[in-house]
Specification:
heterodimer, A: 525 residues, alpha/beta, Rossmann fold, Alpha-Beta Plaits, 4-stranded antiparallel sheet, 19 strands, 19% strand, elongated, disordered N terminus, B: 225 residues, alpha+beta, 8-stranded antiparallel β-barrel, 20% helix
Chain lengths: 525, 225
C-alpha cells in the first residue's frame, strides 16, 4: 500500500480506483482515445541529480556506527564484547623458558599455551584481571615483542552508504549479519516491482497535460498543453544494466517511468545499490529489477494515460512478470474498497506455479476501519505468496498496519507517529517531490513536473514493509531455497515472534529474521 | 566397508583349518587350556568401522549420507571368559546447513558445517568357548556410552555451535579370529542408542529424530592373547 507523505493529498497516494472518484475533465482514459498520448523524444537525458536527504529530514545527530563497538561492555561472553577476559596474546623475543616464566610471574599470569599454528602464546589470567593492563605491562618488558588483549572481531559488512545510519530498519532485522552470509544476492535473481513505475532510465517524454480537478468542487488546474518532461534514472539505484524486461501496463509500452516516486522508493528498499558510498542501502543489492507499472498516479491521470490500475491491469502485470523470469514479485499496492479480487488471486497462483514468490503489502487501514487489502487477502491459501504487515522502530505493529487473519509476516514499515518523521520512517531515494508533485500547489503556481532530480525521503507504510520481504526472498533464493512454498515456510519458521505468542493477526508468524533463515539448520541446532 | 570385507575373508580362510581340526583326536584338557589364556590379559586394539545412523534422514540432509566411517582404539581386558573393554572412536564429517521444507524436501544452503562425534565406550562382555579349533572366539557384550557431539558451522556466533556430551548404551556381538599367537582380528556389530541427544533444533527437529546412535560394523586389530 502507499505511504503517507507530508505534502501529498490523499487522492494522490491511493490507487487508481480512488482516482476515478475525482471529478475530472474528460481525458483519454475515460474516452478510450489518445492511447498513444505520450511520445518518447529522447532516449537519453542528463543524469539524475541527487539532492541528498530531503530538507525536512536532515541529519539529526546521526550515530557514528564505527564507535558502537566501543560502547558495549567488555565482559567475557557478551557477543559484542571488545575483548575476551581471562587471557592475553603475548609473543616473546627470546623463546626460552626463563623469560616466559618470569613474565608470567610478573603479571600474575596462570599459564602459557602456544596454539599449534601460532608463533605467539596465550597467557591465561586470573578472573578479574584487566587484559589491557596486563598487556601493557607485558609490552613494557624487554623480552616481549608484543602483547595484546584478545580483541573480538565482528562482522565487517556495514554498508559504506553515508545515509545508512538513518536506516534503522536493517539492523532491526539483523541484516548486517545476514549480509555476511549472503551479500546482496546476485544478478541471477530478478525481482519484479509491480508499482507506479521505477526511475530506471534517462529520457525526455512529451506529454499533453489537460485541465483537471483533484477533488470534486476543487479548483481547476490549467491545461499544460504539450510539455517535454525530463526523466532520469535514480542515481542510487544502480546502472541501467540491472533493469530487465521493463513494462508499462498503464501506458502500454516499455517505459514504466515513475511519475510519482512510490515505486522507486520501494525498489530502493529491495535493491538499492549498497556499499557504493552513495546514499542508502537495500536488502538484495545485487539483484536485477524488473519494473512493471500497474498503477497510475496523479500525473498519469493528468497526462491522460490510456489505462489505470484496475484488478485486470494488476493481474496482467503479475502474469507478465512470471512469464518473463521474475523470481520474486513485489506488490506494495492494493485496495481496501470493493469485494474480492479473483483475477489477481488467479494471477498470483499462476505466478507461484511458475516459480515466483509473491509479496503483497497487508494494507494501511489499521488506524481506520481496518479493511483488508483485497488485492492480497487471499495469500494465506497460497503457499508461496505472503501478505506483510508493518512494524515501527520498536518492532511493534505500526499504528496504520491493517490486521487480519491473512497477515502472514511483518517487516519494518516505519511508524512516524511513534518515533518521529525521520527516526520512524524508512529512508530511500525517490524523485524530488517539490519538483515532481507540483499539483499540490495553488493552480496559479502549477507547473510541469520534472523527474530527474532526486532526494531521500522517509516514508511509512506496509508498502515499505513488503520490499523488505521481497529482498529477503531474493537472498533466500540465491542461498538455495528455490521453491516459493519453501521460501514462505522458511521465513515463517525462523520469524521472530512478536505480539501475542504464536501467530497473531498483527504480525502473522512474526518479524522476518533474515540472518537465522539464511543460515538455516545444522544437524542439532 | 573394505576392512569388513577383509575380516570376512579372514573368517573364510579360517574355515578349512577348522575342518582339519575336527578330524583331529579330541583332547579335552588341551582344548580347555586353549579356550581362555591364563590370568588377566591386557590387550590394546585399534578399530575401523562404518555406522548406519539411527537419525539417518538428519545425517543425510546435513552430511549427505546416513552413514559414516569412524576410527578408534582402546584396551580389552580379559580374564577367562569375562571381558571388560574401554575404547573411543571418532567420527568426523563435513556437510552444509540446510532448510527442511514441509514434506522433508531438503534445500542445501551452502554454509559449511562440521560434525564430530567421539563416543567413549565401556563394555562388559562374555567370551564364549572358541569355535573351529580355537581360531574363532565369539563374544557378546553390553555397555555404557558417553558421546561427545561437536557441531560447528560458518557464520556462527556465540551459542550457535554445539559441544555437548550425552549418555547412552550399546550392545555388541563380535567374533575374533586368531591370526597369530599375539594378534587377533575381530569383526564386531555394535548397536548404540544415545537418545534425546538431538531433536530440539536443527534438521533433527524437522525430521523428528533424536538419537545419535546407530548400528556399526567394525574391524578390530587386537594385540595380545
Amino acid at each position: 500500500m502507499t505511504p503517507s507523505t507530508r505534502r501529498r493529498p490523499a487522492s494522490a497516494i491511493v490507487a487508481a480506483g480512488v482516482l476515478a472518484l475525482t471529478v475530472a475533465v474528460p481525458s483519454g482514459r475515460q474516452a478510450g482515445i489518445e492511447s498513444a498520448a505520450r511520445v518518447l523524444l529522447e532516449e537519453a537525458a542528463l543524469p539524475g541529480i541527487d539532492r541528498g536527504l530531503a530538507p525536512e529530514a536532515g541529519p539529526l545527530d546521526p550515530v557514528d556506527r564505527s564507535n558502537r563497538a566501543g560502547l558495549v561492555a567488555d565482559a567475557a561472553g557478551e557477543p559484542r564484547a571488545v575483548y575476551a577476559r581471562g587471557s592475553v596474546i603475548v609473543k616473546f623475543r627470546n623463546d626460552t623458558i626463563p623469560p616466559r616464566q618470569a613474565a608470567l610471574a610478573a603479571v600474575g599470569g596462570e599459564r602459557l599455551a602456544r596454539p599449534s599454528w601460532a608463533d605467539f602464546e596465550i597467557m591465561a589470567l586470573p578472573e578479574g584481571a584487566d587484559p589491557e593492563a596486563v598487556a601493557a605491562a607485558l609490552e613494557s618488558r624487554p623480552d616481549v615483542e608484543y602483547a595484546q588483549p584478545r580483541y573480538r572481531n565482528h562482522a565487517m559488512f556495514t554498508p559504506t552508504d553515508p545515509l545508512y545510519s538513518f536506516q534503522w530498519n536493517f539492523p532491526a532485522i539483523d541484516m548486517e549479519r545476514a549480509w555476511d552470509i549472503n551479500p546482496g544476492a546476485s544478478s541471477n535473481v530478478t525481482v519484479a516491482v509491480l508499482d507506479s513505475g521505477v526511475a530506471f532510465r534517462d529520457s525526455v517524454v512529451r506529454y499533453r497535460g489537460s485541465a483537471f480537478r483533484l477533488e470534486a468542487g476543487g479548483p481547476v488546474y490549467p491545461a499544460l498543453g504539450l510539455v517535454d518532461v525530463p526523466f532520469a534514472a535514480a542515481p542510487d539505484l544502480g546502472p541501467a544494466s540491472r533493469f530487465v524486461a521493463p513494462r508499462d501496463f498503464i501506458w502500454n509500452d516499455d517505459l514504466p517511468l515513475d511519475l510519482d516516486g512510490h515505486g522507486t522508493h520501494v525498489s530502493g528498499t529491495i535493491g538499492q545499490a549498497t556499499n557504493n558510498g552513495i546514499g542508502v542501502a537495500g536488502m538484495a543489492f545485487n539483484v536485477r529489477i524488473m519494473p512493471v507499472k500497474v498503477i497510475d498516479e496523479v500525473w498519469d491521470f493528468i497526462f491522460g494515460s490510456p489505462n489505470f490500475g484496475s484488478d485486470d491491469t494488476v493481474a496482467q502485470g503479475i502474469r507478465y512478470a512470471a512469464d518473463n523470469g521474475a523470481h520474486v514479485i513485489n506488490m506494495s499496492i492494493g485496495r481496501e474498497a470493493g469485494g474480492a479480487a479473483p483475477a489477481i488471486e488467479a494471477a498470483v497462483r499462476y505466478a507461484v506455479s511458475k516459480g515466483a514468490f509473491v509479496v503483497i503489502s497487508a494494507g494501511n487501514d489499521g488506524n481506520g476501519q481496518n479493511r483488508a487489502n483485497r488485492a492480497g487477502d487471499f495469500t494465506g491459501s497460497i503457499d508461496g505468496a505472503v501478505s506483510v504487515g508493518a512494524v515501527g522502530r520498536t518492532l511493534d505493529r505500526a499504528y496504520y498496519s491493517t490486521t487480519g487473519s491473512y497477515v502472514e509476516l511483518s517487516a519494518p514499515g516505519g511508524d512516524q507517529r511513534l518515533s518521529g518523521p525521520r527516526e520512524g520512517g524508512i529512508l530511500q531515494q525517490m524523485v524530488d517531490q517539490d519538483l515532481a508533485i507540483t499539483f499540490t500547489q495553488a493552480p496559479a503556481l502549477f507547473r510541469a513536473p520534472r523527474f530527474d532530480v532526486f532526494q531521500y525521503y522517509f516514508l511509512q507504510g506496509t508498502s515499505m514493509a513488503a520490499p523488505h520481504v521481497s529482498g529477503f526472498a531474493a537472498l533466500l533464493r540465491q542461498q538455495g531455497i528455490t521453491s516459493p512454498a519453501a521460501i514462505e515456510a522458511a521465513m515463517k519458521q525462523f520469524a521472530t515472534d512478536r505480539g501475542s505468542p504464536g501467530r497473531d493477526d498483527a504480525h502473522g508468524a512474526g518479524l522476518i529474521n533474515p540472518r537465522a533463515t539464511l543460515r538455516g539448520l545444522g544437524l542439532a541446532r | 566397508m573394505r576392512p569388513m570385507l577383509f575380516a570376512l575373508a579372514l573368517l573364510a580362510v579360517s574355515l578349512p583349518a577348522t575342518a582339519v581340526g575336527q578330524t583331529a583326536p579330541r583332547r579335552p584338557a588341551a582344548r580347555q587350556a586353549a579356550a581362555y589364556p591364563d590370568g588377566l590379559q591386557i590387550r590394546p586394539f585399534i578399530s575401523a568401522g562404518t555406522t548406519w545412523f539411527t537419525a539417518s534422514k538428519t545425517f543425510k540432509a546435513v552430511l549427505g549420507s546416513g552413514q559414516g566411517q569412524d576410527f578408534g582404539g582402546g584396551v580389552n581386558l580379559t580374564r577367562g571368559p569375562v571381558v571388560i573393554e574401554a575404547g573411543a572412536r571418532r567420527f568426523s564429517k563435513s556437510g552444509e546447513r540446510v532448510f527442511v521444507a514441509t514434506g522433508g524436501q531438503v534445500f542445501p544452503l551452502g554454509i559449511d558445517t562440521d560434525v564430530t562425534m567421539t563416543p567413549l565406550e565401556v563394555t562388559a562382555g562374555w567370551r564364549f568357548r572358541p569355535l573351529f579349533g580355537a581360531r574363532v572366539r565369539p563374544q557378546l557384550g553390553i555397555g555404557y556410552t558417553r558421546l561427545r557431539y561437536e557441531e560447528s558451522a560458518a557464520f556462527a556466533q556465540d551459542g550457535d555451535d554445539v559441544d555437548e556430551s550425552f549418555n547412552g548404551f550399546h550392545v555388541t556381538g563380535a567374533a575374533e579370529v586368531r591370526l597369530h599367537r599375539w594378534v587377533g582380528l575381530a569383526g564386531e556389530v555394535v548397536w548404540t542408542s544415545v537418545a534425546n541427544a538431538i531433536g530440539d533444533g536443527g534438521a533433527s527437529k524437522a525430521f523428528g529424530e533424536d538419537n545419535l546412535g546407530g548400528t556399526s560394523l567394525r574391524v578390530k586389530l587386537v594385540i595380545g592373547r
